[in-house]
Amino acid sequence: MASRPRPRRTSRGHVFLAALTLLLMIAVSAHAVLSYNEGIAMCDLSQSFFGGTGYWSCTDIADAQNNACNWAGVTCDTFDTHVVALCAS
Q1: Beta bridge partners of 83
Q2: Domain range summary for the chain, segments of one domain joined by +
Q3: pLDDT tens, position by position, 41-53
Q4: Is a pLDDT exceeding 60 seen at residue 6?
């Protein structure tokens, strides 16, 4: 009588790799925000230079954390979690 091949078990390493990949995909697709301290700094700059209106409209720190990377002249890192450059011209 011929023996049947046993079903292949999934190794723990493959399960871990799949879970890690899924977590990374979720993290990258989530909307990233600036840190609280960077939000404070960007809001302070907005208030100092533009009175909180115009190009850099800042109503509160959370607003700066969520939107500063979209302000004209502001460049953020790939994941929009840190300001890396400001252009004042």
Answers
A1: 76
A2: 36-86
A3: 888 888 887 776 6
A4: yes
